[in-house]
Amino acid sequence: SPSFAGRFSDSYALSELVYSASNLLVLLNDWILRKELQQSLPMSLPQQKLLTWLSVLECVEVFAEMGTARVWGEMGRWTIIVLIQLAKAILRLLLLLWYKAGIQTSPPIVPLNREQQQPLRPQDGEDNSLGRDQTYIGKRSSRVVRSLQSTPSLQSRHWGSPQQREESQSRRAEEVNQTPTPLGLQETIAESIYITRPLLHLLSLGVWGQRSWKPWLLSAVLDISSLSLLSDLKDLNRRERAELRRRTILLLYYLLRSPFYDRYSEGRILLLLRLLADYVPGLGFVTRPLMDYLPAWQKIYFYNWG
């Protein structure tokens, strides 16, 4: 009914507002902690500002689309979509071409690892100098456990072995401090294609319309071309490899993007979810809300195409 649809839309917009606000608070909290700990990102201040603005846009883009659509209608919705995508493309091109930031990763700024920022206890220096006194190795199992004397407080306790914590922290520190892999001409063109793909898709939508296959095909060709050109790049760091895997997985979104979704995917996906809800005990609690959520998700541009 219209009243139910209105309540669903209101609750969805409210949940998106809470989600966007929480992401902004995490971003602000990370900035405050880095400032207090005098732990700056391994890049210049202007580059940090560009990444911060890019992060803010990614936090608020969905809510901005939904809020603008409710206030100014469809024309306002597409206007804010174009403006946000244009701003994001400009920021990313500046990072790529001017600051040589390499492959753009998501999220733009690595979240601060709060476990790694735990203050050292007075006896930590002494324990570290003793080394083996921190742990005990079982004679039969060879399992490493922390000694009771070096157990930290409950608030800062880590339930893995000391070696696991040290390895986790070293990997996290390495991930934050990794320098971007230098890109050659081919890789720079590939990354530029990936960055400008949203703008070209929006332009093609304006030319051929939302029902045409041409914007869908153009976007798919650009995404696949970018990944193919970047596949020859060797010696990528951990974040860059994860980003390329993420982009490859996101190709599955083309099954949920119109017009492919409207003509082929929608009926089959909803039928599969309905069968799972009817014949698999307990799964209906997940699949039935998903059936209601999927059409709404599919209509949000920044969920589907962003």
Automatic annotation (TrEMBL):
Compositional bias (Polar residues): 147-158
Start-end of Basic and acidic residues biased regions: 164-175
Ranges for region Disordered: 110-181
This protein's GO CC annotations: peroxisomal membrane
Localization of this protein: Peroxisome membrane
One Pfam match: Pex16
Domain of life, source organism: Eukaryota
Main location: membrane
Single GO BP term: peroxisome organization
PANTHER family found in the cross-reference section: PEROXISOMAL MEMBRANE PROTEIN PEX16
Family: Belongs to the peroxin-16 family.
Name of the protein described by the UniProt record: Peroxisomal membrane protein PEX16
Organism for this UniProt entry: Columba livia
Gene: PEX16
